[in-house]
């Protein structure tokens, strides 16, 4: 099993557009990728100021949390036509490059 956390820092003026693009991406992934176990988008809750978490100025942070059966199914997603169309639009809303971290299950 492969898990991905994709951190996205979105310009505040682009948040609605980002959510709309991501909603399409999520729906298409869930519909077309049988090896996908989980594909969800979370928005950082800035109302909770715990543990000295950095304050974001002018951006809103979102994280995709994804789970894939294996690397082959993830590759199918990465090679999909809908991702090729939507990903550049999504990246255009960002304040900085998306940060992707891949994990494998240990136990």
TrEMBL record:
Residues 2-102 form the ABM domain. Pfam families: ABM. It comes from the Bacteria. InterPro entries: ABM_dom (IPR007138), Dimeric_a/b-barrel (IPR011008). This is ABM domain-containing protein. It comes from Clostridium pasteurianum BC1.
């Amino acid at each position: 099993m492969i898990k991905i956390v994709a951190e996205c820092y979105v310009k505040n003026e682009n948040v609605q557009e980002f959510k709309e693009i991501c909603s399409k991406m999520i729906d298409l992934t869930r519909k077309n990728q049988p090896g996908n176990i989980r594909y969800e988008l979370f928005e950082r809750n800035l109302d909770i100021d715990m543990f000295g978490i950095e304050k974001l100025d002018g951006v809103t942070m979102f994280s995709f949390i994804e789970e894939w059966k294996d690397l082959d199914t993830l590759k199918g997603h990465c090679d999909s036509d809908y991702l090729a169309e939507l990903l550049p639009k999504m990246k255009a809303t960002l304040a900085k490059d998306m940060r992707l971290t891949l994990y494998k299950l240990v136990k």
